Amino acid sequence: MQCFVKGFRYYSGPSLLNATSEADMLELVREPDNTCNSFAIALHWNDHKIGFIHRKEKNLFSKFLDAGVLEIHTEITYLKPEAETWENVSISIYLLKEMSESLPTHANYLTTPETTRYHSLKNHRGHHLQHQPE
Predict the structure, then answer these.
(1) Taking the mean position of all CA atoms in its chain, how far away is CA 90?
(2) Cα separation of 120 and 110, whole Å?
(3) DSSP E strand stretches across the chain
(4) Is the N end or the C end of the chain the one with fewer CB atoms within 10 Å?
(5) Residues of the chain with pLDDT > 70: what percent?
(6) CA dihedral in degrees (17, 19, 21, 24; nearest 10)?
(7) Global pTM?
(8) More confident residue, 29 or 84
(9) Containing H/E element for 57?
(10) CA distance 79 to 4
(11) What is the pLDDT of residue 121?
């Protein structure tokens, strides 16, 4: 799954932008006592909360985290400090499982990460940006 970090501007994210890098690993931290959503999953970089994963994805991933059945890795896949804060950072979440058998041929696409193309709507000065990672 790939998404922008939600609530980035409300936490430590903006002050850490210059310290973070693409490919940095993030920690998923369940917040079952969160008053807004009991399925909330916070994103932490070096023990600093930088935001949350997207609301519509929380239910599924919180169940995976609660059950502990899969290894979950999260990394920063896109950084654009000059963009609006809601689109400064995007992440990818990978579900990992050791395979004892090969996947069926029709499912081989699951073994290769997909390269995402990001298009920033505009930066804080109102200029339109377009960014497409290579």
Answers:
(1) 5
(2) 27
(3) 2-4, 25-30, 41-45, 48-52, 71-79, 89-96
(4) C
(5) 78
(6) -110
(7) 0.75
(8) 29
(9) helix 55-67
(10) 10
(11) 55
5-21 residue pLDDT tens: 999 999 988 899 989 99
Q: For the ranges 10-14, 33-37, 54-58, 105-109, which has the lowest average pLDDT?
A: 54-58
Q: Is the pLDDT of residue 41 over 60?
A: yes
Closest CA relative to residue 45, chosen from 24, 71, 62:
24
Cα distance between residue 125 and residue 118, in whole Å: 19
User: So what's the pLDDT on residue 111?
Assistant: 72
Helix then strand then coil, % of the chain, to nearest 5: 20, 30, 50
Cβ neighbourhood burial of 26 (10 Å; 0-12, 13-18, 19+): buried
| CB contact at 8 A, 79 and 61 | no
12: left (phi over 0), alpha (psi -120 to 50) or beta: alpha
Q: Mention every residue, 6+ apart, whose C-beta is less than 8 A from residue 99.
A: none
